[in-house]
Amino acid sequence: MKRKGYLLKSFAVICSAVIFCLIVLPLALVSLYPETDERVEIPPESPPKQESMNVPDTINVYRTATGKTESIAFEDYVMGVVAGEMPANFELEALKAQAVAARTYSLSKVVRGNPANHPSAPVCDDVHCQVYRSPGELEKIKSAEWMATGWPKIQDAVNSTKGQLMYYQGALVEQPLFHSSSGGKTENSEDVFVSAVPYLRSVDSPYETAAPHQAEQVEIPLSEFKQKVKKANPGKDLGTVSAGTVKVLERSEGGRVASLQIGNLTMKGRDMRDLFGLRSADFTVSVQGDTVVFTTDGYGHGVGMSQYGANGMAQAGYNYKQILTHFYTGVEVY
């Protein structure tokens, strides 16, 4: 009998253990690790960080004055671009930011291949790509003092950032655009050009108090104004052009004129800028008697890095990586 009672107790213990493992423990685990449902947001995996790309030793450059292609050491080319695109008296951190932007743009052109208008080289030496000046050309253009002080400073900016590039979500940045000054806020790329580029977003540029081209006025005789607008809009009825029919209709996020009324017509601010050679599309316009008056702020298309904004940030204590990541949204520099 004792043997039988022992067996029954053992069987009961085993059954209790089985019930605990099969029922109680899973219920407890469910409370610790609830199943994911549609209300739970799982953050997407970050794209893998791309290994830093190596710049080539040399780059082919189409020289517009001679119509010939030259092979130039890559970092020497970047020095010539920084010298051609940014004043050497800017802060060193601003020059470094310009160097990284120029290097990134140059490599992106190499990766994309040679364009049709200079098929022998991925880049040229004028504003179609980036302005490049060789040391020999700079000696003729600049003063001896500049070559003794400015050129070494540019060399320092390029050498201290050697090989560094900008990346967006692991891919090389293709369009590190820049301009002289923004007037206080940069533009979204799609408000000026065709495509919306994720790193070319409108951002404030508050350190531009020392920038030139602020509140500049351009006066155009009303007769000349009407003549040019008519020529730019063939076959369209211009109507009456007066103080009441010339006005801004819409502005972009960056503050530039998106559209404006001219008589019976509606024109884009960028087209108006091109038509009358204005410094920027950030303008006001009015008709004062027999004169049309534009008042502009900033210089350039306004997309990407403001060079005077970069210099102002450098003067305020920001380094070149902070400058670049401010003007190019979401990029990394390495």
Tags for this model:
Stage II sporulation protein D, single chain, 18% strand, disordered N terminus, three-stranded antiparallel β-sheet, alpha+beta, 334 residues
Describe this structure in words.
The chain is an alpha+beta fold and 334 residues long. The protein has helices at residues 2-32, 74-85, 92-112, 135-141, 144-159, 222-232, 269-276, 307-315, 320-327; strands at 58-63, 68-73, 123-124, 166-168, 171-172, 178-179, 216-221, 246-251, 257-262, 265-268, 283-288, 291-296, 305-306, 331-333. A hairpin with a 2-residue loop joins strand 9 (257-262) and strand 10. Helix 2 crosses helix 3, helix 3 (92-112) crosses helix 5 (144-159) and helix 3 (92-112) crosses helix 9. It is globular. The protein starts with a helix and ends with a strand. Residues 1-48 have low confidence and may be disordered.
